[in-house]
Amino acid sequence: MPHVLSGRLIAGNESYAIVVSRFNDLITQRLLDGAVDTLLRHGSSDGQISVAWVPGAFEIPLAAERLAKTGKYAAVICLGAVIQGQTTHHEYINHQVAAAIMQLNHQYDLPVTFGVLTCQSMEQALDRAGGKSGNKGHEAALAAIEMVQLLKSIGSPK
Ligand code: INI
Questions:
Q1: How far is CA 152 from CA 10, 81, 145, 147, 156, in A?
Q2: Quick check: CB of 86 below 6 Å from ligand 1?
Q3: What is the distance in A from the centroid of ligand 1 to the CA of 78?
Q4: Could you identify the atom of ligand 1 that is nearest to the CA of residue 59?
């Protein structure tokens, strides 16, 4: 039988940070509610969860980096909502934010999860913020919990 390494969905005694952007806060507040609810349902408590609000999705990586640098958090959960407008503005934000968040994972050897919606319309965003397509805040929190536990199960580097 192979030795299977996996991350159990237990938030335990770890501290989690959430970065959430205020732009489109009708959506991002719902993502935040989904993420917090998920952490609490998996054994976390309010005292273990820190929430940092930033103006827009573009500002998420910098706040996430500062939180990662403190060394206080087992994971950082990034939440935002970029909705396509009349210009290509959103494309620049989406690509840069996704790439920067990915880079933080490797730079800090820390789960930094991507709960930033990249939608064509407000309707699509609502569907993914507690509507018929689930809640991406919930998914980003669940991914953070699983990755924290998986990295523990793999162990520290030599
Ligand atoms: N920020 C978002 O989070 N979502 C958007 O849809 C959005 N659009 O479309 O403009 C947006 N722009 C603001 C941006 O993230 C920065 O806050 C701003 O450019 C200041 O740096």
A1: 12, 31, 11, 8, 7
A2: no
A3: 14
A4: 17
Residues 6+ apart with CB under 8 A from 100: 60, 61
Q: Where are the beta strands (DSSP E) in 37-155?
A: 49-54, 75-83, 112-119, 129-131, 134-135
Taking the centre of ligand 1 as the mean of its atom positions, its distance from the CA of residue 100, in whole angstroms, is: 15
Question: How far is Cα 120 from Cα 72, in angstroms, rounded to an integer?
Answer: 36
Spatial distance between the Cα atoms of 62 and 97, rounded to a whole number of angstroms: 10
Judge whether residue 43 has pLDDT over 90.
yes
Looking at per-residue confidence, does 79 or 158 come out higher? 79
**What distance in angstroms lies between residue 155's CA and the mean position of ligand 1's atoms?**
38
Q: What percent of the chain has pLDDT over 70?
A: 100
Phi-psi region of 131 (alpha: psi -120 to 50; beta: other; left: phi over 0): beta
Look at residues 11, 51, 27 and name the one whose alpha carbon lies nearest to residue 133: 27
Mean pLDDT throughout 131-143?
Answer: 97
* Catalytic sites, residue numbers: 89
